Structure prediction request, 132 residues.
Amino acid sequence: MDKVFSWPVLVGICGVFLAVWVALQFLSTMRLQEEAKEIGVSVYSWNWPGENWQSSAEMTQAEIVHRTDNDAVVKVSGKQTLKTSGGEKNSGNPLDISKQRSETVDCSVTLTLYRQGTGQAGYQWVLGRVEL
Prediction:
């Protein structure tokens, strides 16, 4: 009876499985980082119309501090832009553009995310805790 698998074929199959596993781990890490960036943007983006304040954020970096199968701690950092119109609050007059001010500052947040869902439907990372 002929050999079904020779050593080079067996090593090749193991190599393919290893390459697929590494690629899946890389994609899973990228997905977690992108979801953490989106949550970071939502933490630092807000609007306070009564006082004419507005904040927006752009998260540029996400670093996984700790990760298990069911939870992850991710530090997200970027730039926050604070804007104020400088006009009187609650006035019916259009705001004077010359009084508008804007300031950009560095910001970072540490997020604890928990994995929700399993099976064929997949899973998603949900926010558990925010540390500013």
The mean pLDDT is 87. Residues 7-44 form the longest helix (38 residues).
